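INTERNAL AUDIT FORM
Audit reference: QA-55
Scope: verify that the stored structure record matches its stored sequence.
Auditor: D.O.
Record contents follow.
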Amino acid sequence: MGQERVALQREREAASGSLHLARDAAEAASRAKSGFLAMVSHELRTPLNAIIGFSEMMLREEIGPIANEKYRAYVGDIHESGMHLLRIINDILDLSKAEAGKLELDEDVFDLRDTIRSVRQLTGTRIDDCGLFYSVNLPAGLPLLRGDERKIKQVLLNLVTNAVKFTPSGGRIEIAGRFDPAIGVIVTVSDSGIGIAPEDVARVLEPFEQVGSPFNRPHQGTGLGLPLVKAIMERHGGTIEITSEVGLGTKVSVTFPPRRAVLEPSVVARSRSAA
């Protein structure tokens, strides 16, 4: 009986050792992947910045006019594609930093309504081209927010572009915000698109995962949008929640904790004077 217990204990120790080795190998592989993605992304940005910069010069005709209108259209396409690729690269870099625990916030106090208006301007052309209706529902008393405005703008851009991607022509997209002193500042992006099956909701928050759709538009994306939203929200101490029903649409809510709501205008004045 004693020998059986010893043998069983040895088996358990061996199994535990194998689990530790597997975990260490997985963590090392994850670090290597993040490091590789970060390195490649940095290397890609240098030639890409040149492509974007020179195409902007050509569109402004700084050296001379573009005689052929087709060439002008081609340059516009080059610039738009370059900007799209740069956004993907920035997403990869930010997600790599988040996985390494090095995603830093440049915090300030700002008006979330201004950020949402900016997102509307950036996505307006695509929303109109796709034949979608867009609305914003924000209360007048929505407090200011303390956080990284650029990254929060990135969050909202990813949510809106995702909604556009999975909503057929004639559908509707809405951004709504509210403040609950006990919960925080909640921003919700809703669409009337194809929805997500319950078994896929958790999967779309994993990097490089996508859910297939007959309505996917050109530029399918990389599957980085929602994982990056999750990483940025967690860095702000917030959360992301997805509710969806196949055929009826999706609602994605991001919640910033109450401590990030700024209710006193004097705080903004002190923040700006310090800057």
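Auditor finding: record pair retrieved intact. The chain has seven helices and eight strands.
Action required: none
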